[in-house]
C-alpha cells in the first residue's frame, strides 16, 4: 500500500511538472465551427502552455514535431467538440437541488408526497423542508396541489417546494402560518395567491406572491452555499459544460464565486447576470467587472423580468389564456419602470437580458428596446430570455433590433402537452419558433434553464433537432417544422452562446488564440440517429487546456506508465 501511495504521489508530481507545458491532442474525430457557422473537422489539436489553441490540424495533415516536455492526449478516435456553453442556467439552484428535495422526476402527486416524507425523516435537524421540481401537469392533476395534501406528508415543520419553472411555490400549513398569510392577505403586484371559494389560501403562491413565504426561510449558511457551488461545478463539468450564463446572481453569490476564483476552483466559465437592479448596484454599481481569473468570471449584464411562466399561467399574454378566459397572466413591470431600469443599465454599459415568455411580455420588451436602442446603440447585444410564445408579427423585430433570442430547447418538449391548452393553436405559430427566428436573421443562444430542466446539454441538442421528448414522443416531432439542424443546434450551444456573452473571441470554437475548452464524448453525434443524441456521455472535459473531468477516474490527468513510451518529452494522459 505504501508503494502504491508513493507511486500515485510521483505520478501526480510528474503531471504537475508538466502543467505549464504544451498539450497535443491526437487521433481525434474532432469538429468545430468557423466564423461562418460551417462545420470544420480536425484530427489533432496543439494547445499552448497557457491553455490556448495554438494550431488545429486537419485530417490527413501531419501533426507538428514536438520538442521539450509536453502532454499528449490520444483521443483514440473518439469525438472531440468545443466545450458546450449553457446560455441560461442557475448555478446555485443546480447545486442546492442536490441538497434538497428533488421532485423533478416525480410522475404523481403521491410519489412527490412520498419523497417529501422520506427527506424529512432523513433530515430531522432541518429547520425548513425545502425543494423544487414539482409539476401538476406531469402529474395529470388538472389543478394545483394544496397545503392540506402537503400536510399529509409532513406537518411538524414548514415545507416550501418550488414549481419546476421557479414561478410558483407550494407550502404546507406550517409555512403559511409562519408567513402570516390569511384570507385577508392581498395579492401582491405581479403575484397571485391561489384561493378556495371562500378566499382562503390553498397552498400555492404564484410569482411575486411566493415572496410572502420565501422571505421567512432562513438563508443558507456559508458552508451550505459552498457545498452547493461545488456540486454544481462538478455536475456541469461532468456534462461537458465549460461555460454558463448564470441568470440572476445576488451579491452573496458573487462573493462566493470570487472566493472560488481566488482559490482556483472555478472549473466552468461563469458569465453572470445580476439578479435585478438592486443586486447590480451592490455588485457593480459603476461599470461591468471585466473578465477575471483568466476569463472564468464576469458580470456585465442584468436580468429583469417581464412576466411569469406558462405552466402556472403567469406568462403575460396579449389575449386571455385559452383554458382560463378571465386571465391574461402577470405583467411584472409597467412600461415606465421597465424603461427606466433598462436605460439605467444601458447607460452604465450593461447588457440587458429580460425574461419574457408570453406574447404580451415579448411585445412589451421589444417595444422598450425599440425606444431605447436608438439612444444607446446595439453594441451591448441585449437579449430576451426564453422568447417562448411570440406573436408572429413580432418575430422579425428580433433581427431588426439586434436582440438575441436566448432559448431553451427542452422547454418545448416539456411543455408540448400543456402549451396548446394554454394558448391555443393559432398562437402556437410563434411558440418555441427557433427555426423561424433563425430564418428571420435573428441570433439565438441555446440553454436549458437548469434546474428547471436537466443541465445536460445533449438533452437540449436532442430536443432542438427532433422536437421530441426522451421517450421519442411524439414520433413525428412536436411542431417539427421549427426543428434545427444538428449544426445549427451545436452552434446555439457554442458560438451562439459565446456571442451572446460577448466572448466569441475567447471561447465557443476551437480556433487559434481561443481558450482550449473542449470535450471528449463517446459517440460521433453526426453519425448516430438524432433520437440517440440525448444518450451521449461525456468522457472528458478540458478547460483552458487542463482536464477538469474524467469519467470514472480522478479529474486530474495522470501520466501513462513508462512502458508505453510516447514521443520523447511527452507525458501521456489517458482517455476512456
From TrEMBL:
Sorted UniProt keywords: Hydrolase, Signal
Domain Amidohydrolase positions: 74-549
Pfam families named among the record's database cross-references: Amidohydro_3 (PF07969)
The keyword Signal is annotated on this UniProt entry: yes
Molecular function terms from GO: hydrolase activity
Protein name (database record): Amidohydrolase
Segments for region (Disordered): 553-576
Cleavable signal peptide: 1-19
InterPro entries from the UniProt entry: Amidohydro_3, Metal-dep_hydrolase_composite, Metal_Hydrolase, YtcJ-like
UniProt-listed Enzyme Commission number(s): 3.5.-.-
Keyword Nuclease: no
Amino acid at each position: 500500500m505504501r508503494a502504491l501511495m508513493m507511486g500515485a504521489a510521483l505520478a501526480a508530481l510528474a503531471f504537475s511538472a508538466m502543467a505549464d507545458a504544451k498539450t497535443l491532442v491526437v487521433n481525434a474525430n474532432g469538429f468545430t465551427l468557423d466564423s461562418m457557422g460551417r462545420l470544420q473537422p480536425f484530427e489533432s489539436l496543439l494547445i499552448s502552455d497557457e491553455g490556448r489553441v495554438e494550431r488545429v490540424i486537419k485530417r490527413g495533415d501531419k501533426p507538428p514535431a514536438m520538442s521539450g516536455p509536453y502532454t499528449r492526449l490520444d483521443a483514440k478516435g473518439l469525438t472531440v467538440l468545443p466545450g458546450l456553453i449553457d446560455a441560461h442556467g442557475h448555478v446555485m439552484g443546480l447545486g442546492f437541488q442536490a441538497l434538497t428535495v428533488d421532485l423533478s422526476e416525480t410522475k404523481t402527486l403521491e410519489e412527490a408526497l412520498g419523497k417529501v416524507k422520506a427527506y424529512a425523516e432523513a433530515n430531522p435537524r432541518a429547520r425548513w423542508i425545502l425543494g423544487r421540481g414539482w409539476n401538476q401537469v406531469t402529474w395529470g392533476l388538472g389543478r394545483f396541489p394544496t397545503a392540506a395534501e402537503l400536510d399529509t406528508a409532513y406537518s411538524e415543520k414548514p415545507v416550501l417546494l418550488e414549481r419546476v419553472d421557479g414561478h410558483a411555490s407550494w407550502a404546507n400549513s406550517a409555512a403559511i402560518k409562519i408567513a402570516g398569510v390569511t384570507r385577508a392577505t392581498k395579492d401582491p403586484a405581479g403575484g397571485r395567491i391561489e384561493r378556495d371559494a371562500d378566499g382562503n389560501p390553498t397552498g400555492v403562491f404564484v410569482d411575486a406572491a411566493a415572496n410572502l413565504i420565501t422571505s421567512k426561510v432562513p438563508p443558507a449558511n456559508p458552508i451550505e452555499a459552498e457545498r452547493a457551488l461545488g456540486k454544481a461545478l462538478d455536475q456541469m463539468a461532468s456534462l461537458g459544460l465549460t461555460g454558463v450564463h448564470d441568470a440572476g446572481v445576488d451579491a452573496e453569490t458573487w462573493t462566493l464565486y470570487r472566493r472560488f476564483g481566488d482559490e482556483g476552483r472555478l472549473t466552468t466559465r461563469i458569465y453572470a447576470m445580476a439578479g435585478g437592479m438592486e443586486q447590480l448596484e451592490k455588485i457593480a454599481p459603476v461599470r461591468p467587472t471585466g473578465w477575471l481569473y483568466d476569463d472564468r468570471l464576469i458580470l456585465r449584464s442584468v436580468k429583469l423580468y417581464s412576466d411569469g411562466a406558462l405552466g402556472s399561467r403567469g406568462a403575460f399574454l396579449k389575449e386571455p389564456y385559452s383554458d382560463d378566459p378571465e386571465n391574461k397572466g402577470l405583467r411584472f413591470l409597467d412600461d415606465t419602470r421597465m424603461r427606466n431600469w433598462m436605460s439605467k443599465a444601458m447607460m452604465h454599459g450593461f447588457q440587458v437580458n429580460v425574461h419574457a415568455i408570453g406574447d404580451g411580455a415579448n411585445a412589451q420588451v421589444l417595444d422598450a428596446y425599440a425606444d431605447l436602442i436608438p439612444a444607446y446603440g446595439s453594441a451591448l447585444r441585449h437579449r430576451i430570455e426564453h422568447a417562448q410564445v411570440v406573436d408572429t408579427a413580432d418575430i422579425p423585430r428580433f433581427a431588426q433590433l439586434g436582440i438575441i433570442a436566448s432559448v431553451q430547447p427542452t422547454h418545448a418538449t416539456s411543455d408540448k402537452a400543456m402549451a396548446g391548452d394554454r394558448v391555443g393553436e393559432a398562437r402556437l405559430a410563434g411558440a418555441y419558433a427557433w427555426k423561424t427566428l433563425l430564418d428571420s436573421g435573428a441570433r439565438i443562444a441555446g440553454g436549458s434553464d437548469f434546474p428547471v430542466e436537466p443541465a445536460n446539454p445533449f438533452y437540449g441538442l436532442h430536443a432542438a433537432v427532433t422536437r421530441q421528448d426522451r421517450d421519442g414522443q411524439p414520433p413525428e416531432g412536436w411542431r417539427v417544422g421549427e426543428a434545427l439542424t444538428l449544426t445549427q443546434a451545436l452552434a446555439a450551444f457554442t458560438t451562439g452562446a459565446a456571442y451572446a456573452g460577448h466572448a466569441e473571441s475567447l471561447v465557443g470554437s476551437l480556433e487559434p488564440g481561443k481558450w482550449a475548452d473542449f470535450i471528449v464524448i463517446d459517440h460521433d453525434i453526426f453519425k448516430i440517429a438524432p433520437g440517440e443524441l440525448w444518450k451521449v456521455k461525456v468522457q472528458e472535459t478540458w478547460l483552458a487546456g487542463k482536464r477538469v473531468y474524467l469519467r470514472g477516474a480522478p479529474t486530474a490527468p495522470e501520466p501513462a506508465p513508462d512502458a508505453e513510451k510516447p514521443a520523447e518529452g511527452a507525458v501521456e494522459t489517458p482517455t476512456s
